[in-house]
Amino acid sequence: MGRCALVVLILACLVRPASATVVESLNEAGMAAYSRGDYASAERMFASAIARQPREPLLHYHHAVALTQLGRWREAFRAYETVLGLNPPADLASASRKALRDLAPLARMGRAAPPEAASVSLERRVGVWFTEVTINETHVTRFMIDTGASLCAISPELAESLGIRAAPDAPVVELQTANGRTSGRLVQIPSIRVGEAEAINVPGVVVASANLGHGGILGMSFLSRFVVTIDPARRVLNLEPR
Predict the structure, then answer these.
(1) Distances (CA, A) of 50 to 103, 134, 159
(2) 184 and 138 together in one domain
(3) In sequence order, what are the residues at sequence separation of 6 or more whose Cβ sits closer than 8 angstroms to the Cβ of residue 139?
(4) Rounded Cα–Cα distance for residues 59 and 26 (Å)
(5) pLDDT higher than threshold 70 for residue 219
(6) Among 80, 107, 134, where does a domain finish?
(7) Same structural domain for residues 163 and 236?
């Protein structure tokens, strides 16, 4: 069964036009941001580099990888297609084709109308933040907030109670979380709502973890649809639509 390994930046030399110094600086800054888990900043850096050197396939590949980590599946899919249209080196072409295969089921999962803003209370447990979420407008539970997780995750018990089951041929997706690496089969969560902020058709995985109980992880497949800020003093999570 295929795994979605969508987190590798490729180190290679950029072609050097007149703007090469600026482009290389933006690419290096994007890679540094990516390596520390700041995928939003990485995406902006790579996009700025592309604006200056739009025919460089490596920049489009790095942009695609950052978009993937932000849960912006369709944009990432198009970015990998752009890579292949720019006559890339063999290793870049191979990595992009694999990413397209892995991304295909995610890219087909549509998004709903623009979500609303919300401010919700947080609870601090075992060094991480938890908040209350409503799943499918029927189940209220607590999810761990993890901006380092590319996907949301739900426990097997919650998935069972919601009637969410992975298809037999659903890909196994590797997930980096605050508690380490894990993996699970890809599913689609019909609705996740935090306060008044709701996202429809959210890609996720079913994983078992003692730290989650019967809840889950609020990852970037939900959070990337919002500008996210946490006020630790007030213990509040703010979500503003992008």
Answers:
(1) 22, 39, 40
(2) yes
(3) 158, 161, 162
(4) 10
(5) yes
(6) 107
(7) yes
- Tell which of 39, 72, 107 closes a domain: 107
The model's pLDDT over 2-49, given as tens digits with 9 standing for 90+, comes to: 333 334 455 444 545 545 688 989 999 999 888 877 788 889 999 999
At 6 the three-state DSSP class reads coil
- Whether 12 maps to a domain, the answer reads no
User: What is the number of helices (H) and of strands (E) in the chain?
Assistant: 7, 11
Assess contact for 191 and 204: CB atoms under 8 A.
no
Same domain assignment for residues 190 and 136? yes
Quote the domain boundaries for residue 211: 118-241
How big is the chain, counted in residues? 242
Token pair of 87, please? 């006559």
The helix/strand/coil state of 33 is helix
Structural domain contains residue 84: yes
Q: Using the predicted structure, report yes or no on whether residue 126 has a pLDDT greater than 70.
A: yes
> What is the helix (H) or strand (E) element at residue 34, kind and residue range?
helix 20-35
Q: Are residues 101 and 123 in the same domain?
A: no
Q: Work out the average pLDDT over 200-207.
A: 88
Q: What is the pTM of this model?
A: 0.56
